[in-house]
Amino acid sequence: MNAHVTEFYNRTRRSSSIASKLLRRGRVLELPLYWLLRTSDLAREGFENSGSYRFADHIYCNEPSGRFGIGHFLDKQLLNMPAVESLRSRFFMARDELCRFLQERASSPGGLDVLSVPCGIPRDLVAGTEKFRSLGGKLPGVRFHVLDLDEDVLHEAKTFAEEHSVTLTTHHGDALDVDVYGGEFDFITSTGLGEFLDDNRLASLYAIFWRILRPGGVMVTSAMRRQRFSDYLLRLAELHVYYRSAEDLATIARQTGFVQLTISIDGHGIQSFLKATK
Q1: Is residue 11 scored above 60 in pLDDT?
Q2: How much is the pTM?
Q3: How many domains does the chain have?
């Protein structure tokens, strides 16, 4: 196992207390906003656990919740922000690309292996599968895999998938360690990790994906552009992300061996999507 194994790339917070940090820096006027935002379940998860899988899943589910009434209201407002709606679109992208892939390849001899990395709650795999089934698709030869550094997440992912009649094979380890994958795959979805990797590490991740994909295999991934207010909230929560365009993703993917690339941008112009075929 390489040196990255214990590093959670999305846990970028360094201060023991965000409130204390604001006081030390003389940003007293921001304290009321910080405490008000904490009544929102989405904001509180972001403040307490950086870019956790629960933070992303709350956005994907789009069901507001919070404390004291005002928290529910604020949560709804946050979920309706353009930047958050844009983040939700990466879930829809992964779902739809998986469904499309299954429509084209599910009957392939020898079956297919589909992977989500890092998986969090693998809502994209489950929703893509359910959409495929709703269109009359069958999955006798499709095997679903998830990889994550957090063993508790893998357990929760497996339970969630089983509740929706999807069986998962779990892989525990660092996404930047090729040895933890244990096989080859036909489709890989990876959202929510690249935003926390610098260009060199992202290139290493894409190189691993290129290596473990079978010929004709597909990788789908995403990136985000900077949006002023959402960037302020991310920095307030000490979530340090790397902003990139679709062209930036394509450049890194080409450097790691991918040739057949399709890029797109969501309706708000914030999220960029890359589909790369080996």
Answers
A1: no
A2: 0.86
A3: 2
